[in-house]
Amino acid sequence: MRINRKKRNEYLWGYAMIAPVTLGLIAFYFYPFFQVIFDSFYKIGSFDRRLGFVGIDNYTKMLADKEMWQTLMNTFQYVIIIVPLTVVFSMLIAVLLNKKVKGLSIFRVIYFLPAITMAAAISMVWRWIFNGDYGILNGLIGTFGLDPVQWLNSKQTALFCICCVAIWSNTGYYMIILLAGIQGISRGYYEAAEIDGATGFQKFKKITLPLLSPTLFYVVIMIIISTFQTFDGIYLMISTKSNAIKHTQSVVMYFYRTAFEHSNKGYASAIAVMLFLIIMGITIFQMKMQKKWVNYE
Amino acid sequence: MPIKKKTWFSKTLIYIVLIVGAFVALFPFIWMILTSIKSTSEAMIIPPTIFPKQIRIDNYTLITTKLPFFKIYLNTIVSAVVTVAAQLVFCSMAAYAFARIQFPGRNIIFITILAVLMVPGTFFILPQYRMMYSMGLLNTIPALFLPNLFSAMGKFLLIQFFLSLPQELEDAAYIDGCNRGRVFISIMLPLIKPGLVSLGILTFKFAWNDLMWPLIVNTSTDKMTLSAALSYLQGQYVTDYPGVMAGAIMSVVPIIVIFAIFQKQFIEGVAHTGIKG
Q: In this structure, how many other beta carbons lie within 10 angstroms of the beta carbon of residue A17?
């Protein structure tokens, strides 16, 4: 079949323009993707040398690994605490900001500020606030006559601190998404409800909430996915020498420690594969649900 | 009138909640600034003082003696700027081609790239690290940005913008004898400027704040980025919180300035991802 010159020229433009990204992605993402899966069946020694094929040993080890189970347990606790609180706070602020308040743009900027700031910098100040000896939080509870607490070093409180910082950091981000969703709801529904004499709460429950449910669902899924991958806050605030680390680490934190502190990259690869499968599962679930979840509008 | 009284009351309540919330959002920043101008000994008074008795700004200069701070600053700027520039160029080219040009294999390549988005970023880190090691790039500046130059995410963001432009716009240019490259650069790119700005600032934010990757590839202090340097500082000078706070403030100032300039695009960019999602 003869392709005419114009068409061939067109193809060339297409290939040339996608070439940089496609080749870059192949080199730095596709090739590594298969490498990780491959590595998860190997024992890997120093300087990343493969020391031998171990079959599914890394995976069976994971099933018996108490620290792994504790890590999943931590993640479960994070999800249970962080998801509802972040959703409630960001929803509350979004609804209030939607009420034609003065200084809307200033509030929006202030609430969004934590979401753009470097986690490393922010974790430093939180670490200082939670400091067991000189922190202002202990100073504050001290004025009520309470004893100082080693917030970040004790396994009872460290997880709670990480949750606080995560909620503080992300509320503004999800608030923006929810606010955009609320603003996308047609005024007509509210006007009709007002004619029928609906109260503010009724309007929220019967109009805002159902029409916002696809956005809410998206936000919940995003928070769950990001919780599995929390790294910065835990790495920066919890000392790996402390007992609290086992009770606060996320899957990605455990992956990092396995790979770079225990230099066990074969096992770390298996953890990465497991993380990938979990996230893929959540994403597929999200896509399936989203198709069903038709917006009523 | 009772109704008016009620709305006045609820309005006040709304402002109280919003202001308390804003204070919570801002408090760590305020505390960071207040701590950074205290002396180390004042920072360790129990109970803590709120405002410094004596203002000390030498924490800001002292940090440059503990770390090659200017070098680190420069590394972070270089890494972020190169990442942003490369992503804008590469992603806009690819997005245009996928949105507008018909070529064999287009759909299959498109879907394969889409799959990358399903994989968490950390998944690729070990082989990427090994690549840097075997190329002899560990502890160099290119190691900081090399894998981040290519992004599937950025491409998808821009495709939306190209698809929203009318085809007639291009057709007129072809009749005038322009080729694809010419149309792309002088007609299409200027029209998707909002998309480029969104992608640019989101990428800048990511590159500026990223921690794990710079942490593992560059371990010598003069090749670090600010994120990694702060965590290093924290590990080395455990008790010098005012110094660490000064470093933290200097690290967040650029991103806050950029946010202040582009806040509208920032917020729209984020809102956009949610609505689409």
A: 24
Residues A49 and A102 reside in one and the same domain: no
Chain mean position to CA B25: 19
Check if CATH label 3.40.190.10 holds for domain B67-236. Answer: no
- The percent helix, strand, coil of chain B (3-state, each to 5) is 80, 0, 20
State the average pLDDT over residues B37-64: 81
Is pLDDT larger for residue A284 or for residue B266? A284
Q: How far is B45 from chain A (nearest CA, A)?
A: 7
Q: How far apart are CA A126 and CA B28, in angstroms?
A: 7
pLDDT above 90 as % of chain B: 47
Q: Would an 8 Å CB–CB cutoff place A236 in contact with chain B?
A: yes
Q: What is the pLDDT of residues A168-217, one digit of tens each?
A: 999 999 999 999 889 888 888 888 988 888 888 888 888 888 889 888 99
Task: Please list every residue in chain A whose beta carbon sits closer than 8 Å to the beta carbon of residue B113.
Answer: 21-22, 25
Q: What range does the domain containing A19 cover?
A: 5-53
> A207: which residues sit within 8 A by CB, 6+ positions away?
A185, A189, A190, A193
- Say whether pLDDT at A67 is over 90: yes
